[in-house]
Amino acid sequence: MAKTAVEAGEAARQLGGRAVIKAQVHAGGRGKAGGIKVAETPAEAEKIARDLLGTRLTTHQTGPDGLPVNAVLVEEAIQAEKELYLGMLLDTLTRAPVMMASEAGGMEIEDVAAKSPQKIMKQQVNLVTGLMPNQARILSYRLNLPGESVRQATEMMVGIYRLFMEKECSLVEINPLVVLKDGKLLALDVKVNFDDNALPRHQDVAQLRDSSQEDPSEVAAGDIGLNYVKIGGNVGCLVNGAGLAMATMDLIKLAGGEPANFLDLGGGANEEQVASALKILLADPKVKAAWINVFGGIQRCDAVAKALVWVLKEREVKVPFIVRMNGTNLKEAMQILEESGLNITFEADLVKAAETAVSMAKRGEGAPDRDARERK
Asked: Which residues are catalytic?
């Protein structure tokens, strides 16, 4: 690992001169995006690293803003005879791990699955017995490996399963797994995803987190116990409950708009948490209208209303707000909002609230809204 160009050049020198320089970002598709390059000399390795470090790499998995390249990995350049794929993930249909293997290594496995699914071999794993050696051997033979390589591939698969279970992973993927001239196997690139819900049990993994690879708003939301994902549309959403949040985004899409985010307050957020959530939502410059959709069960409607008034008066927000509430302390919440004198539109009907939010967002973007076109 190198965080400066000089370190990259020195690492290449230690590897014998010829090396592969890989941008370290939390996304796939780096090769196609120019994030993986071969250096023939230490000087070239230094130059490649200098060109990459401090930039943002954009791949099909990063979104248009890309991710910052704060470090590069300098690896020995090798000559591979064959490139394979090995991976384990959870099969949602069988609710158990599945080991996958393919001779189409070095390619994006999603493309292989879409265009040539027959090239991906799968082995379901029984959670009682675990991955059995004979199951791994069958996959190894089907990869058309030479005898000695079969034993090594079998050991690798068993090791992948052990890692997957012990560290509570959601994905372990080696791509490519290469066969060298002498028949030995080498994992050239590995990706491991961990289940967020399991991280409190794995502090060694949690300490590896690199928040620079995450959206700052998502990091801030996570630090205060909120579930926030930036999506990129112009209708901001603040909702309590993941199911209602998903339905809210669906309705925005059906109304012809684009949700800016997924933001779930959860069941019992207090006024400070709601206020923080609103500030995170409004920090997105793409948000041109905001829809608060709250069904008060454990969550009190008046707590949301107080936080909304607090934030809007404190920040003099110009973004229009659409509020739809029902449930606990609704009467008190409506009184708080009505007496505030703020730019808030009330709409009890779920579908109409979505249409209003989309219409306001389009006006904020300077585009004619659907209602205006229909009136014409």
From this structure: 85, 173
